[in-house]
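Protein Record: Sequence and Backbone Structure Tokens
======================================================
Tokens: labelled as protein backbone structure tokens, with as many entries as the chain has residues.
Question of interest: how does this chain fold, as expressed in backbone structure tokens?

___
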Amino acid sequence: MTLVVDDVRLAHAPDRRVSVVCDDGLIVAIEPAGTVPDAAADVERVDGHGALALPGLVDAHAHVDKTLYSGPWVPNPGVGTVAERIAHERRERERFGLPSEQYVSALVERMIANGTTRIRTHTDVDPGVGLRGIETVARVAERYRDLVTIEQVAFPQGGLISNPGTLELLERAVALGVPTIGGIDPAIVDRAPTVQLDALFDLAARTGCGIDIHLHEDGSLGAWEFEEIAVRTIAYDMAGRVVISHAFGIAHPPTQQRLIERLAEAGVALATAAVYDVPMPPLLALDAAGVTLACGSDGIRDLWGPFGNGDMLQRAMHVAYRNSVRTDRGLELALRAATSGGAQVLGVQHYGLDVGCVADLVLVDARNAAEAVASVPPRRVVVSRGRVVAVDGALVVDV
């Protein structure tokens, strides 16, 4: 089936109206609007009415295995520190049936309807849950594979070194096909920063997987850990395969510019969720240095907090707002974090709105990319792999 998306304006060329021709899941032509005839009976047409076409949105940091989306409202007890939230979740997750295939599926459907076509999700792996979360998310990923690509990170939320048996579970997850492993706060959670980092990089070197590590640690401690990660990335020749998520330590003023330069040198990317009042990676400084920044939803309606809706255009707005950017250029950089930045972190090939790219498009009513970020308009049409999958915020395909 050929899909022609008529009369749209591309985010990188908003002053020109075009028709985007999709076939076999790819963009095969971009022609002036109104010039593509119906060549055969199996051509589907969508009238964009001059809408702005964005590339498929990328959620580069989610935790869909934890979600209670579509389930009961669960009051949050107000626990404060990361360690307290981890302990609370460990006590309560079985009571609420987590991980739940039903909740994960409901959330993934909402993310697709919001225009997300690729997700990287950090799935808990520990002796208590084993690989049950990995298996649950894998089943959901298979069910929705024609609508969205879901990549898992085997994530040791409760600690890697301090939680015996977790490292072995990460290795089993990789053997099952999980392409990326995670870590978390090597000093505060594990009390063994160099041991955790050595274990992660050694496993990655032996198996060929990537690394995406949560770093909530800030100040001089976080800055030191940035240096340690950069050193190992270079030593293990892993440029382009290492991500620091949350990355609070980058906001340490005395070392910020030096750390940014080290990230650029090592080829380490950052991912942010722009949540609450936590330290933010500096959007403009990272762009100037050539450091890739991605963003994601983080937790969505889970035992950590009640917020989140899986809307990556709204998340781009938060990235811009938290960075205090007001110019069109700044807003466009925030959108990049939710599109091409995320695609780069996930290693996606053929991403974007050009001939030869995968046909993932999101139509919105906005005059340009900056306005789309600032106003967060509804998603009129979502196209995934050259197929219309959602209209006006609702799925239009059977799964």
